[in-house]
Amino acid sequence: MADEVVLLDFWPSPFGMRIRIALAEKGIKYEYKEEDLRNKSPLLLQSNPVHKKIPVLIHNGKPICESLIVVQYIEDVWSNRNPLLPSDPYHRAQARFWADYVDKKVYDLGRKIWTSKGEEQEAAKKEFVEALKLLEEQLGDKTYFGGDNVGFVDIALVPFYTWFKAYETFGNFNIESECPKFIAWVKRCLQKESVSKSLPDPHKVYEFVVEIRKRIGIE
Amino acid sequence: MGDEVILLNLWLSPYGMRVRIALEIKGIKYENREEDLSNKSPLLLQMNPVHKKIPVLIHNGKSICESLIAVEYIDDVWNDKSPLLPSDPYQRSQAKFWANYVDTKLYEIALRFWRTEGEEKEAAREEFLECLKLLEEQLGDKPYFGGNNLGFVDIALVPLFCYFYTLNLYGNFIKEEQYPRIISWAKRCTQNDNVSKSFPEEQKFKESISQTRTNLNKE
């Protein structure tokens, strides 16, 4: 049976990147549709009426929303290759916990770094580095959070790397010097085609952030 | 095999209630341990070093944190009866989507309603009722969100209703004629043994809430 898989996405979205990586890991053919977030398509509004956000995966006409829920769906449906989650319930719960931690911390703190100034920004930077250090501890000596291959936590986290140049420039700090193990892990991930082909050039993301800052009036 | 299951909890936490309901549905024997959040036990700090919050499920010495992750873990491990999540991948993703919606929208708005006054409170009320409309549609004619039995979304949502139901001093908040399905769902849930066992005792609850309100008003 020919599956029809469509991804409604926006190229700099780390949430969209997660799904691109998962689809690539599973070798799933799909149609990528770029959304203009200032002019959302009828398909997007119809597929995600609750949040009206990307990314949305549409599988044989049925939409699935929220990036980590989509990745789990992909895992459930295409379960016969490259498992993205451990089979053991306890380890699965741990993977979900850390992906949830990424969701709660990395995105919001990163956003604060490039949108705020002064004390607020300093506090965000400090918390951000602490979060990365905690993740480094979690990784330990493993190649990936998923062990020998990229898994749920790797997929949840690595897309934010494309925003690091923006965080570093506007936050005036260097992430690699604070968290070398983290960056070493990123580099290992980037050696995988499923990851490198799914992530945009950090330079382009940086330019995009420059544009956004102008647009929302942050000098 | 003797399973050792401990729940570190706070008697009126809606998040703790979720885990209790799941344990009750599955018929799992567990020890409910009350935490004093102003004096957290060494066990809590050791079992949830990242967030230092309740609830924490401890299964044979290993901890699982975050209420919905714990509920999913319970479903994974005790998978021989009373499934909390659908087996179909698409239905599963929808259950997770709506539980996530409850978590990220309803609880946040309810908290805002609780903590604010005047215009802000009114705005929160409006937002909450909008969310309720969506849930009313989602529930449709089913007895529970999970179908014929309590499921993931019911478990995520019902503790919040415990608060509203018990506090019908805020009675005009949800008018029965506008949300007939949700109201009858809430009644049905409170009559369910597994749910009522997990609710705090009504009088104690009312006293505690009115004390909290008095304290809040004093600040």
From TrEMBL, chain A:
The entry's keywords: Cytoplasm, Transferase
Q: Which residues form a coiled coil?
A: none
Record-linked SUPFAM superfamilies: GST C-terminal domain-like (SSF47616), Thioredoxin-like (SSF52833)
Q: What is its EC number?
A: 2.5.1.18
Query: What is catalyzed by this enzyme?
Result: RX + glutathione = an S-substituted glutathione + a halide anion + H(+)
Q: Which Gene Ontology cellular component annotation is one that this UniProt entry carries?
A: cytosol
Q: Which organism is it from?
A: Flemingia macrophylla
- From the Swiss-Prot or TrEMBL record, what is one GO molecular function term? glutathione transferase activity
Give the similarity note. Answer: Belongs to the GST superfamily.
Q: What does this protein do?
A: Is involved in the conjugation of reduced glutathione to a wide number of exogenous and endogenous hydrophobic electrophiles.
- Superkingdom of this protein's organism: Eukaryota
Pfam families to which the protein is assigned, alphabetical: GST_C_2, GST_N
The protein's name is: Glutathione S-transferase
Q: Does the keyword Ion transport apply?
A: no
User: Which parts of the sequence belong to the GST N-terminal domain?
Assistant: 3-82
UniProtKB/TrEMBL annotation, chain B:
Organism superkingdom: Eukaryota
Subcellular locations according to the entry: Cytoplasm, Cytosol
Which stretches make up the GST N-terminal domain? 3-82
Among Gene3D superfamilies, the record links this protein to: 1.20.1050.10, Glutaredoxin
Q: Describe the reaction catalysed, as an equation.
A: RX + glutathione = an S-substituted glutathione + a halide anion + H(+)
Locate the GST C-terminal domain: which residues?
88-216
Q: Where is the composition biased (Polar residues)?
A: 208-219
Q: Which GO terms describe its molecular function?
A: glutathione transferase activity
Q: Name one Pfam family in it.
A: GST_C_2
Role summary: Is involved in the conjugation of reduced glutathione to a wide number of exogenous and endogenous hydrophobic electrophiles.
- What name has this protein been given in UniProt? Glutathione S-transferase
Recorded source organism is Flemingia macrophylla
